[in-house]
What we know:
The protein is of the alpha+beta class. The chain has a single domain, classed as Gcn5-related N-acetyltransferase (GNAT) (Aminopeptidase, 3-Layer(aba) Sandwich). The chain has 5 helices and 7 strands. The protein has helices at 13-20, 23-26, 39-51, 100-115, 130-139, and strands spanning 4-6, 57-64, 67-76, 84-91, 120-123, 142-153, 156-166. The chain has a 7-stranded mixed β-sheet with strand order 1-2-3-4-5-7-6, with helices on both faces. Helix 1 crosses helix 3 (39-51) and helix 4 packs across helix 5 (130-139). It is globular and about 35 Å long.
Amino acid sequence: MICKIRKWKLSDAKDLAMALSNRKIQDNLRDGLPYPYTEQDGLDYISSMISADENETFAFAIIVDDKAVGSIGVFRQENIHRQTAELGYYIAEKYWGKGIMTEAVTQICEYVFEKSDIIRIYAEPFAYNAASCRVLEKVGFQYEGTLRSNAVKNGKAIDMKMYSLLRTEI
């Protein structure tokens, strides 16, 4: 195993701040994250994940050599989508291209399908983020289509891709 996922600890805040104070990472995430990302921002995020309903929010640190190098989470949706959940993740740039995220995505999907009634996990990476799309494909997510001009990031309308993995496919 090249990484493990585990529940967040407040002591991970410094590592989290180091990873997220990087424009290349933030350019592939949704808006709303402060830049630079401080240790206090990390403490606030980790506190909210620790106190979240464990049947709604499955949030983990990605650990390599006892260090938090990224974040991964699966978030239950509501109403008729209550057995569907959205996957989100990032990893510090130093760890890109090493297979760590593929392993982390595999681990969290297995965990969520085993520990909950979720039947479908989906992800919506930006279409230009080929590395993220490849991670999903390697884990077995199915490409469902392109969501045209689905988001505005850095002042530009961009496409997103829709991928999903069903409980029956793992």
